[in-house]
Design goal:
eight-stranded antiparallel sheet, 17 helices, 26% helix, binds guanosine-5'-diphosphate
Length: 727
């Protein structure tokens, strides 16, 4: 991550964000004339940390909704899909919009459940900044760790919001410590809670030395528009907080000045450093990833939300603060950069496709450069075809606002793009680039699906097509041999939710088979292998001859084909035929016919015949070489492994562990806190099916768990034998 150095504008200074300023009507339609007033942000968290509640409060405080919904009553604005309401989880990355003072917030909702990896990946790809919501009792939990790592990959600057300060057992200090320890980040508290647990009343701003105190009844339910302004009062720091204020402030100042040489000198010379200068330096350090500002509150109690909004404006980047996007020029295949400028050529990334019950197919776009107009003609650069841009919409969870044009840096939903999918780049007629698409993992769990009745067949096909159109980690395949339709996704829950959606949105009843994990095969050593395809039948013969080097790659390496032929030993036109054959052959591994993964195939040598060589012969030679070569590379069968975190009351710990023992689990850590025990383990995904029921009966429904696909790992010998016996 690079910063834009001293040019960073100083925004969101306290002078703007005082009480008098916020009385300005914030529920008017948004008008932003400068990019530095946009924040493309997302709330990221472990399930149940309170992300939905925080988002609701933000929408309420900024005046976009007039009543705060409650997750527990199933009335929130962001979680608008019925399943989400029932399950209390946010599944789709709905993009919504809000304004705070003169700033525009595009809020991309990220799912808390990591079974929906595609949603996390796609949103991180287009976010400029993230707010990591943590539970003040639980501290950093496993999914926050996962998402943190993903956010690192995309260089997304972050701030942390320690939520649920009102809960019994809440600790700001311990949570900050867990940020340091588990996320290996450098947290800097910019607030101090006033009271903890039921005494939690508000926050002290460590930079300005002012306090925001909420009346104990502040919640927001049923209040109108800017009623939140009655909820807080600015006050001097309460006497009981004075001592910790001094300690926390000093530690904050020291951390900030360490990131800025000028301030460091001033500080060492004993000079007073102004609040704005501290904020400016902290903003830069946050954007460069050196520091992570930490704020706190209680979303359910409606406390700490306004200061959080200020923090988002103050510390998270605008589209101008992040490095300009890079793309590949499809003509020259060279890397080019695109500036966030309306006058630059258009480059927009489609980061989500959704089917809206009212307007139909929606494509969510992040515009990186140039601007798009409603009704204009554009090019899907990735696919190489023209598309007509229909209406442009700004989404507010499940309602929408029409726009005439959308500028660089902004996010919108487009109607009318028929053949554009997640990851595609939209550009103009000339000066095109292809932006890097988000990375999606291959699905790891499959089930067979069939319609409930013959009449449902067509509807099922249509529903499967639309759902896989929306979700790149949901793949549907028809098996010609068995006549079965098989759908694959990232976990049991992911597939259950999709079947549920088919029933509700498409009115299709379907029978689903037992879930099965997707195994893979891989080589463990390199081999060099020859493939000769020679046929002499009457007149014309067939001749194709190749030498391939097969080399195992790191996990996630995919299948890489490299042409290392020199001196025209194989003419160019036959090389792509070899690649075709090779790619076909790796779909069936030597052990049990599962796809081979993580393999580099180099075409190093071969020969051809003037008359008898053909594409078919070289394709066949490629297939033969793979078939003969892979059994010699000591192949192994790989199975998907899940990360599991179970939180259980202590008295059930031994039952939980006993059950995990029967599932080939590898126990990582067991940590206790307030009578609750947290067990972290790795276990084969194939052993996790129906875990919900097993855990419920072992603990009388008092334990909870989260699970996510982690990686592939070789299957142990004894399990391999029984698997191969069945296969
Ligand atoms: P998400 O899964 O991260 O979106 O979390 P939710 O917003 O759905 O909240 C999970 C649970 O925590 C719900 O029962 C909320 O009512 C509760 N919750 C959220 N914020 C707070 C808070 O500030 N204090 C307390 N005590 N509970 C909260």
């Amino acid at each position: 991550m690079s910063t834009t150095g001293d040019k960073l504008p100083l925004v969101g200074s306290r002078a703007q964000n005082t009480m008098t300023q916020t009385t300005k009507k914030s529920n008017e339609p948004l008008k932003t004339d400068s990019l530095d007033k946009i924040r493309n942000i997302g709330f990221i968290a472990h399930i149940d940390a309170g992300k939905t509640t925080v988002t609701e409060q933000v929408l309420f405080v900024t005046g976009r909704i007039h009543r705060v919904g409650g997750v527990d009553e199933g009335t929130t604005a962001m979680d608008w899909m019925p399943q989400e309401k029932e399950r209390g989880i946010t599944i789709t990355a709905a993009a919504t919009n809000a304004s705070w003072n003169d700033y525009q917030l595009n809020i991309i909702d990220t799912p808390g459940h990591v079974d929906f990896t595609a949603e996390v990946e796609r949103s991180l790809r287009v976010l400029d900044g993230g707010i990591v919501v943590l539970d003040a009792v639980a501290g950093v939990q496993s999914q926050s760790e996962t998402v943190w790592r993903q956010a690192d990959t995309y260089d997304v600057p972050r701030i942390c919001f320690v939520n649920k300060m009102d809960r019994v057992g809440a600790s700001y200090e311990r949570t900050i410590e867990s940020i340091r320890r588990r996320l290996r980040a450098n947290p800097v508290a910019v607030q101090l809670p006033i009271g903890e647990e039921s005494e939690f009343r508000g926050v002290v701003d460590l930079i300005d030395g002012t306090a925001t105190i909420y009346p104990s009844s502040a919640k927001g339910n049923g209040q109108k528009g800017n009623a939140h302004l009655d909820r807080l009062t600015q006050a001097p720091i309460p006497p009981e907080c004075q001592e910790s204020f001094q300690t926390y402030r000093q530690s904050m100042v020291e951390k900030i000045v360490e990131t800025d040489e000028t301030l460091l000198i001033q500080y060492l010379e004993g000079e007073q450093i102004e609040g704005d200068a501290l904020r400016h330096a902290l903003r830069r350090a946050t954007i460069s990833g050196e520091l992570v500002p930490v704020l706190c509150g209680s979303a359910m109690g409606g406390k700490g939300v306004e200061p959080l909004l200020d923090g988002i404006i103050d510390y998270l980047p605008s589209p101008l603060d992040i490095p300009p996007v890079e793309g590949i020029d499809p003509r020259t295949e060279k890397t080019v950069i695109r500036l966030p400028d309306d006058d630059a050529p258009l480059a927009a990334l489609a980061f989500k496709v959704a089917t809206d019950p009212y307007v139909g197919r929606l494509v969510f776009l992040r515009i990186y450069s140039g601007k798009i107009l409603t009704g204009g003609s554009v090019t899907n650069v990735t696919k190489g075809h023209r598309e007509r841009m229909g209406r442009l919409l700004r989404m507010h969870a499940n309602s929408r606002e029409e726009l005439e044009e959308v500028s660089a840096g902004d996010i919108c939903a487009a109607v009318g793009l028929k053949d554009t999918f997640t990851g595609d780049t939209i550009g103009g007629a000339t000066e095109q680039v292809i932006l890097e698409p988000p990375k999606f993992p291959e699905p790891v769990v499959s089930v067979a699906i069939e319609p409930g009745s013959r009449a449902d067949q067509d509807k099922l096909t249509d529903a499967l097509r639309k759902l896989s159109d929306e979700d790149p980690t949901f793949v549907v395949k028809y098996n010609n041999e068995t006549g079965q339709t098989v759908m694959s996704g990232m976990g049991e829950l992911h597939l259950e939710v999709l079947v549920d959606r088919m029933r509700r949105e498409f009115n299709v009843e379907a029978h689903v088979g037992k879930p099965r994990v997707s195994y893979r095969e891989a080589l463990t050593k390199s081999v060099c292998v020859e493939g000769r395809f020679v046929r002499q039948t009457g007149g014309h013969g067939q001749f194709g001859h190749v030498w391939l080097e097969l080399e195992p790659l790191e996990q996630g390496g995919g299948i890489v084909f490299e042409n290392a032929i020199v001196g025209g030993k194989i003419p160019r036109e036959y090389i792509s035929a070899v690649e075709k054959g090779v790619r076909e052959a790796v779909n069936n591994g030597p052990l049990a016919g599962y796809p081979l993964v993580d393999l580099k195939i180099r075409l190093v040598d071969g020969s051809y015949h003037q008359v008898d060589s053909s594409e078919l012969a070289f394709r066949s030679a490629g297939i033969l070489a793979i078939r003969q070569g892979v059994p010699r590379g000591s192949p192994v069968l790989l199975e998907p492994i899940a990360n599991l975190e179970v939180v259980t009351p202590g008295e059930y710990l031994s039952d939980v562990l006993g059950d995990l023992g029967t599932r080939r689990a590898q126990i990582g850590t067991i940590e206790g806190q307030d009578r609750l025990q947290t067990v972290r383990a790795l276990l084969p995904l194939g052993e996790t099916f129906s875990y919900t029921t097993a855990l419920r009966s072992a603990t009388q429904g008092r334990a909870s768990y989260t699970m996510e696909f982690r990686h592939y790992q070789p299957v142990p010998e004894n399990v391999l034998r029984s698997l191969l016996a069945v296969a």
